[in-house]
Specification:
- By secondary structure, the protein is mostly helical.
- 84% of the residues lie in helices and 0% in strands.
- It has a single domain, classed as Growth Hormone, Chain: A, CATH 1.20.1250.20.
- The chain is built from 16 helices and no strands.
- Keywords: Membrane, Transmembrane, Transmembrane helix.
- GO terms for molecular function: molybdate ion transmembrane transporter activity.
- Pfam families: MFS_5.
Length: 398
């Protein structure tokens, strides 16, 4: 057996191992995070908190993510991506614990912790995976395979979390999904400590040098900035939807499903739709370049979110629009991850990705601080998606 074949076998074995340990750690943490998603609004409402105040909690979350989280997550390039993933699990756990206390002060503090966790979740896991691939000189096909599977398995797992959340909430109250989520974060923390190796971007560089280098790269390559803006616009609209979908359905009085709404089952339906979109991403990315596919997705997503503007009282029709939007989200994430892998240099990936989250967070803050009507909120989301489509069409020509 030649040295070449031995090397190929070694790489193949490591690829399978990396695929398994990354998906396990990523999915365990994601399940813990998604578990209470369907009942966040219901829990806070049960504490006697109105919609405007609940939106204010998310403002604190996004501000923390923008200022504290962006800074903390950017340190991952120097101090370690595994450490950043562990910190993500820790901060999410603190958020879930804080939600057990029905005071506004506790919930504000909890959402600050969540904001820091969100910044780490959005960048550290992908950066860790990319660096492992680079260090082992693995091929891009395996990276695409891992990213696609992460998205598909995440959607499969989170469909189950919707049903589990429904059963937990029905049996033990709205707080139960938060309690079980803490257990998932503890398991995630232990698993990553035991099975993940540490990796870095620019370990020896000073913190301010990494920030300055990232800014220079953004100024030098317009494609990175445009890619980041498209990501920010879509992500902002999807996060705003996540906050507003439940009150939007509850406000619709015609063609109703049932009262009270089975939020856990509906959320599982959304995630099933997202899984369908994720399964479509592989074949579609083989046929279309990411730039073309994303342009189409932005258009379809904009049309889907137009339904609660045009027919806000038709509950089933609004729900249909939300399902279509979830299909778009499922296809979006593998496509945008592949596009980022083309443009963003790996040694400063965490820092750059956190810079590129700033527009997303600012957009969400503007919408939530405005306390707009639901119709206006979705009009703004649709506008963001159309802008993203035009930017992506411009990016195709560069």
């Amino acid at each position: 057996m030649t040295m070449f074949s031995l090397s190929s076998i070694s790489k193949r074995l490591f690829s399978h191992k990396l695929h398994s340990i990354y998906l396990t750690g990523f999915l365990l943490l994601s399940i813990g995070g998604y578990l209470p998603s369907a009942y966040s609004y219901a829990l806070f409402s049960s504490y006697g908190i109105d919609r405007a105040t609940i939106e204010l909690f998310f403002v604190y979350c996004f501000v923390a993510s923008l200022f504290v989280g962006t800074f903390v997550a950017s340190l991952a390039d120097r101090f370690g991506r595994r450490l950043a993933c562990l910190s993500c699990s820790f901060f999410y756990g603190l958020y879930h614990v804080a939600c057990h206390f029905p005071s506004k002060q506790s919930l504000i503090i909890g959402h600050i912790f969540r904001g820091i966790g969100d910044a780490l979740y959005a960048t550290a896991f992908e950066a860790w995976l990319m660096q492992e691939h680079k260090q082992r000189n693995l091929n891009d096909q395996h990276l695409e395979y891992t990213l696609n599977n992460a998205n598909i398995y995440l959607n499969i797992a989170t469909i189950g979390t919707g049903f589990l959340a429904q059963l937990l909430a029905k049996s033990y109250g709205y707080i139960a999904p938060f309690t079980v989520g803490v257990g998932f974060f503890m398991i995630t923390f232990i698993f990553i400590v035991c099975h993940w190796s540490e990796n870095y971007g620019r370990e020896k560089s000073h913190m301010h040098a990494s920030f300055i280098s990232a800014m220079k790269i953004l100024r030098a390559d317009t494609r990175i900035l445009l890619c980041g803006l498209c990501n920010a616009l879509f992500s902002a609209s999807s996060y705003i939807w996540l906050i507003e979908w439940a009150p939007t359905l509850e406000a619709a009085t015609n063609l109703t499903i049932s009262k009270p709404l089975p939020l856990g089952y509906i959320y599982s339906g959304y995630l099933s739709s997202r899984l369908f979109g994720a399964c479509m991403s592989g074949p579609l990315l083989k046929r279309f370049r990411p730039q073309m596919l994303l342009s189409i997705l932005y258009l379809i997503a904009a049309l889907a979110l137009s339904i609660p503007i045009i027919m806000p009282d038709e509950q089933i029709i609004v729900l249909f629009g939300f399902v279509v939007f979830q299909i778009c989200i499922g296809t979006f994430w593998p496509a945008i991850a592949l596009l980022r892998s083309e443009y963003i240099p790996n040694e400063l990936r965490s820092t750059l990705m956190n810079y590129l989250r700033v527009p997303q967070l600012l957009l969400m803050l503007i919408v939530l601080l405005g306390h707009f009507s639901l119709s206006t909120v979705f009009t703004l989301c649709v506008s963001m998606l159309f802008v993203a489509m035009f930017i992506m069409l411009l990016l195709r020509k560069l």
